[in-house]
């Protein structure tokens, strides 16, 4: 049962990554009139925001896919080199590239202070949990390392859940004005993910994966 659930999870994440890739391709034009950037005309001229946006957009898929390899017991126990390389890519890209870019972007988020507060908290928690995952890895405390990486990846997947909830709200025609809807999405994109991560940790998922570390 667990194996089947894992297979569906992997397929779901890979499909979501494919959709994110499709959404990212138009931004290769580096033009202010593309999709989401149409809502950012007043700040597009701000260089640190603009650079952060493109960095975050083009690195997000790499983080999602590299992070996925961290939670396969088979890869961890039989293909440790893949686990280590993908883990290195995940840590470096999150801590030094995409995470800082996301933090810069969060101060300029649509929706005003409520949404900005949400995304600032998300960015700080994402960077913090990832750093703690690295910290405990260096100390060879693998159980704590695994737990913090689960939390980190749950926050990574906020990029997926944000778009999923946005799609579902459109399907069910949720009657909220655009600003209120975006504020709701900003909080819903990561809080449920973190709650699910804590439930999985409490149920011993990490201990199961690391049992043969």
Task: Give your account of this protein's structure.
By secondary structure, this protein is an all-alpha fold. It has one domain (2-26, 43-210). Helices cover 77% and strands 0% of the residues. It contains ten helices and no strands. The protein has helices at 2-24, 47-68, 73-78, 80-106, 112-138, 142-156, 158-171, 178-188, 191-202, 205-210. Helix 5 (112-138) packs antiparallel against helix 6, helix 5 (112-138) packs parallel to helix 8 (178-188) and helix 6 (142-156) packs antiparallel against helix 9. The longest helix has 27 residues, at 80-106. The radius of gyration is 18 Å and the shape is globular. The protein starts with a helix and ends with a helix.
Quick structural gist:
With about 210 residues, the chain is mainly α. About 75% of the residues lie in helices and about 0% in strands.
Shape: globular
Query: Strand share of the residues?
Result: under 5%
Q: Strand tally, please?
A: 0
Helix proportion: over 70%
Spell out the helices and strands N to C: HHHHHHHHHH
How many DSSP helices? 10
Q: What class, by secondary structure content?
A: mainly alpha
Question: Would you tell me the overall average pLDDT?
Answer: 87
Secondary structure layout:
Layout: H1 2-24, H2 47-68, H3 73-78, H4 80-106, H5 112-138, H6 142-156, H7 158-171, H8 178-188, H9 191-202, H10 205-210
Helix pairs in contact: 1-2, 2-4, 4-5, 5-6, 5-8, 6-9
């Amino acid at each position: 049962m667990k194996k089947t659930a894992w297979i569906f999870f992997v397929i779901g994440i890979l499909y979501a990554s494919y959709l994110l890739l499709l959404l990212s391709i138009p931004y290769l034009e580096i033009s202010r009139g593309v999709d989401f950037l149409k809502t950012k005309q007043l700040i597009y001229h701000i260089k640190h925001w603009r650079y952060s946006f493109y960095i975050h957009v083009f690195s997000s898929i790499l983080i999602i896919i590299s992070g996925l390899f961290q939670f396969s017991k088979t890869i961890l126990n039989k293909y440790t080199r893949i686990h280590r390389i993908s883990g290195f890519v995940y840590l470096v890209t999150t801590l030094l590239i995409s995470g800082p870019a996301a933090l810069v972007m969060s101060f300029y988020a649509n929706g005003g202070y409520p949404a900005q507060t949400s995304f600032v908290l998300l960015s700080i928690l994402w960077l913090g949990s990832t750093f703690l995952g690295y910290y405990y890895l260096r100390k060879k405390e693998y159980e704590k390392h695994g737990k913090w990486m689960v939390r980190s990846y749950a926050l990574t997947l906020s990029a997926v859940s944000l778009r999923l909830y946005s799609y579902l709200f459109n399907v069910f025609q949720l009657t909220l004005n655009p600003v209120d809807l975006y504020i709701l999405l900003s909080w819903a994109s990561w809080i449920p993910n973190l709650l699910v991560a804590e439930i999985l940790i409490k149920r011993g998922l990490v201990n199961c994966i690391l049992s043969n570390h």
